[in-house]
Design brief:
This protein is mainly alpha-helical and 219 residues long. 73% of the residues lie in helices and 5% in strands. It folds into two domains: 63 residues, Arc Repressor Mutant, subunit A, CATH 1.10.10.10; 143 residues, Four Helix Bundle (Hemerythrin (Met), subunit A), CATH 1.20.120.530.
Length: 219
């Protein structure tokens, strides 16, 4: 049995700041002032510093000597690099699920996520839709049983969430497109069709990249 400890205070602060960055409330290049965060959340400065180090690992914040912490920029190079790498990581997870599932009950978590995505789509709830989109990869972790892959994806996921949220918020991306992709991906996993899994995920990441870049051009 695996026990998950409650999030530490610095993780909670990091999550709070990450959500603000993902939603665009903290803009690219904006400085995050430790003292302001300390006062706003009534926490210690040390906890805020630890939170900022977490966000640096997750590519949402850059910490520069004598300049402090700033929200990382979103530009064409970073978006293309991120989408290309995440695409390969998604493919590894897709392969793992296809190779390791043994009964349809193994795939129930993915079916439940699919249902939640449809509910978020109906409510036009972008925040929930983005969160559940990335819940898919977490449901795949047990099949891969690869802590290095999991850690890498987890550290990159907030940056991808930020880009994805921007595309949806700017109406460049469509929730229906993602739902169609997810349905095709599940079909490929059920058939253990590895070439199809790669084809679907490569096309998705390429399309996502272009949509994010289109959204960036409008900001």
């Amino acid at each position: 049995m695996t026990f998950k400890a409650p999030d530490s205070l610095c993780e909670q602060i990091a999550h709070y700041l990450a959500e603000r960055i993902i939603r665009g409330e903290l803009a690219p290049g904006e400085r995050i002032q430790e003292q302001k965060v300390t006062q706003a959340l009534n926490v210690s400065r040390g906890s805020v510093r630890e939170a900022l180090l977490i966000l640096e690992r997750r590519h949402l914040v850059a910490i520069l000597p004598r300049r402090g912490a700033h929200v990382t920029e979103l530009d064409e190079r970073s978006v293309r690099s991120l989408c290309a790498l995440m695409g390969e990581l998604y493919i590894l997870l897709g392969y793992a699920v296809a190779q390791q599932w043994r009964s349809e009950s193994d795939l129930l978590p993915f079916m439940e996520i699919q249902q939640r995505l449809h509910q978020a789509r109906a409510a036009q709830d972008i925040e929930s839709f983005v969160a559940d989109s990335f819940a898919v990869m977490r449901a795949a972790y047990p099949f891969a049983a690869n802590p290095y892959l999991q850690e890498t994806v987890e550290n990159l996921q907030p940056a991808m969430s930020r880009a994805y949220y921007l595309a949806l918020d700017q109406r460049q991306a469509n929730m229906d497109d993602y739902l169609e992709l997810f349905a095709r991906l599940l079909d490929a996993v059920l058939l253990r069709d590895m070439p199809r899994i790669r084809e679907v995920l490569v096309a998705y990441c390429q399309r996502s990249c272009e949509l994010v870049l289109a959204a960036l051009a409008r900001v």
